[in-house]
Write a structure and sequence with these properties.
The complex is a heterodimer of chains A (161) and B (452). With 161 residues, chain A is of the alpha/beta class. In chain A, 19% of the residues lie in helices and 28% in strands. In chain A, the strands form two sheets. Chain A has a five-stranded mixed β-sheet, covered by helices on one side. In chain A, 43% of the residues are buried. With 452 residues, chain B is an alpha+beta fold. Classes of the chains: A alpha/beta (161), B alpha+beta (452).
Chain lengths: 161, 452
């Protein structure tokens, strides 16, 4: 078990679902969806000091995890002191995906979460401004879902000629 | 909801769009949606009503009852580096708040990547942050190599480092030239583009393309240095320090440049980290975070270079950090030329790397490998990988998810322009409108990277 897992188990008992080292020795810790903010807050503070949230994104997994989940969120954490990286992983529901927002912990999550909402339709509860960010505001559907067809959308502005 | 926004008028354009979207999803308007709707619904009648109300309140002597004026800046505005739209709330000349609206350059590259094989995706990634194509390529290839468990030969790493550092110089030159233009220092632009063109000649010589190269491959680089390339690079790096002196001569002690950039766009270092800002914008505030030192990749630990830092964190410090970074890049390129290891420029794994061209005419096996790689592509074992490199704007990270097939399940770029742009709003609060332009310039956002 990694050092971070031990610290997490002591601070937030039961929050960690699983952990493993993936390709290139990258450490991934899977966390219970309902505990993500608690875990994030602990990891940001001492002694782990993951002050920088590098990235937050989502993967639409066809078939899901077999427990009714489909969307897999990945949080890439970076520690300025040690140069360590850690990936947190959280599963979101297939029908009404919703995860608590980590914007109160890292402000940078704001736009990342808006992008995930825009592209995958995963809602973030407690987000201050959950609106579309890259697609037009009235766009229907979420383009990065795997069942969203490529080339299936209407050509825009074709009526303007 | 409609009456509340348009004051009795039928909401038009985007105002109607956001209202419809909110109604469809059965929710209230989010902050950005409300602001966008307000700008659109702000017809002449509406503006008159607001002015009258304001005058009435002023007549009543309510102190500070001035209402901010909402001005739409962009998306097409020469100083916004691409298509960036800022809805600004102005109180006279002072910016009270801004709401960035992005997505005008969104091309769905991440979606396209999922429908291409791993080796075809290499063509797409440099088109995101088009001023630093080599860094995009580097991050993507590192992630795929990590998933494959493939190590590029050391000569490939050195070639990658050399081209990345040359790319850092060209990117900073574009930034310097355009930032100068915005503040009326037009001469700088001609100077910097002169050198940038020379560097693009080098890129063309080694990769065949001036921009959007697909030179870095999974497993190494597509080709070795051509004849005469080394001499040209040497001439370039010998000239460059003198050229940087020229830029500094134009700007560093220029009273207008100093007045316009000193004390502009300052945020505390802790706030910058919290907002995810990386690169020169963070280092100008004195935070020593450079991935080349903090988490070395591609053999950066073998090079002798310094990480320039600032103290105040204002636009001038960002300028000075970038100029000093160019000097360090020149040093790294020189070290690359001096110590370039002998050996192959690409890994010798025929299941992943294309066979050499000359073998196709003589070897049946090479022909089969070539055919399989081009038609089907190579398969990547299931897993996920995140690799980050230090680009001219900060951390470019690439998150690749594979499921064992020849196409990626997900390719996501963590683009520093996208993340750093978030810092603009807290920076611009209570600053002058003219300084807002300096701030946009000093953050050096590339809209292709922001919108992807």
């Amino acid at each position: 078990m990694s050092e971070y897992r031990n610290l997490l188990d002591a601070a937030c008992p039961g929050a960690v679902v699983d952990e493993w080292e993936g390709a290139g020795g990258e450490l991934t810790i899977e966390v219970d969806r309902d505990r993500i903010v608690e875990v994030a807050r602990f990891l940001k503070g001492e002694p782990c000091a993951f002050r920088l949230l590098s990235d937050l994104t989502c993967v639409d997994v066809i078939g899901g995890d077999g427990r009714g989940n489909r969307f897999r969120l990945a949080y890439q954490l970076f520690s300025l002191e040690t140069g360590d990286r850690l990936r947190l992983r959280v599963w979101a529901d297939a029908e009404a995906p919703e995860v608590a927002s980590v914007t109160p912990v890292w402000r940078t999550a704001d736009w990342h979460e808006r992008e995930v909402w825009d592209m995958f339709g995963v809602r973030f509860s407690g987000h201050p401004d959950l609106s579309r960010i890259l697609m037009p505001f009235d766009w229907e559907g979420h383009p990065l879902r795997r069942d969203y067809p490529i080339g299936g959308e209407d050509v825009q502005f074709s009526d303007a000629v | 909801m409609g009456t509340e926004l348009g004051a009795g008028l039928t909401p038009v354009g985007e105002a109607r769009e956001v209202l419809e979207a909110a109604r469809r999803e059965g929710r209230e308007l989010a902050e950005t949606e409300r602001v966008v709707a307000q700008v659109e619904a702000g017809t002449a009648v509406e503006a008159l009503r607001r002015t009258r109300e304001m005058e009435e309140r002023n007549a009543e002597g309510v102190p500070g009852a001035r209402e901010p004026m909402i001005i739409n800046l962009g998306p097409q505005h020469p100083s916004t580096h691409g298509v960036l739209r800022l809805i600004t709330e102005l109180d006279g000349e002072v910016v009270r708040d801004i709401h960035p609206v992005i997505g005008y350059l969104h091309t769905g590259i991440e979606k396209q990547c999922e429908n291409k094989t791993f080796w075809q995706t290499i063509t797409l990634v440099p088109r995101m942050d088009y001023l630093s194509p080599f860094f995009n390529l580097h991050a993507y290839n590192m992630s795929v190599e990590k998933l494959l468990g493939l190590e590029a030969p050391s000569r490939a790493h050195w070639l990658r480092v050399m081209l990345s550092e040359l790319n850092r110089i060209t990117s900073h030159l574009v930034w310097l030239g355009t930032s100068g233009l915005e503040l009326g220092a037009i001469t700088v632009f001609f100077y910097t583009y002169r050198e940038r063109d020379r560097a693009l000649d080098l890129f063309e010589m080694i990769s065949g393309e001036r921009m959007n190269h697909r030179y870095f491959q999974v497993g190494g680089c597509s080709d070795d240095m051509p004849e005469g390339f080394e001499a040209m690079v040497r001439r370039f790096v010998q000239e460059m320090p003198g050229r940087i002196d020229e830029y500094e001569g134009l700007l560093s002690a220029n009273p207008i440049w100093i007045e316009r950039t000193r004390g502009v766009g300052v945020l505390p270092a802790d706030d910058l980290i919290d907002l995810g800002v990386t690169g020169p914008a963070l280092r100008a505030a004195g935070v020593d975070l450079d991935l080349r030192k903090a988490a070395p990749y591609s053999g950066y630990e073998h090079f002798d270079f310094n990480v320039p830092l600032g103290t105040r964190g204002d636009a001038y410090d960002r300028y000075s950090v970038r100029l000093r970074e160019m000097r360090e890049s020149v040093r790294i390129v020189e070290q690359c030329l001096d110590g370039m290891p002998e050996g192959p420029h690409i890994a010798d794994d025929r299941k992943v790397v294309l066979p050499p061209r000359e073998e196709l005419a003589t070897s049946m096996e090479a022909l089969i490998h070539h055919f399989k790689l081009v038609t089907e592509g190579f398969r990547v074992p299931p897993g996920e990988a995140y690799s980050a490199v230090e680009s001219p704007r900060g951390e470019i990270g690439c998150y690749v998810v594979a499921d064992g097939g020849p196409k990626p399940v997900r390719v996501h770029m963590r683009d520093p322009s996208f993340v750093n742009l978030q810092a603009l709003r807290p920076m611009a609060k209570n600053a002058y409108l003219a300084d807002l332009i300096v701030m946009i310039g000093s953050l050096d956002n590339v809209m292709g990277g922001v919108d992807r």
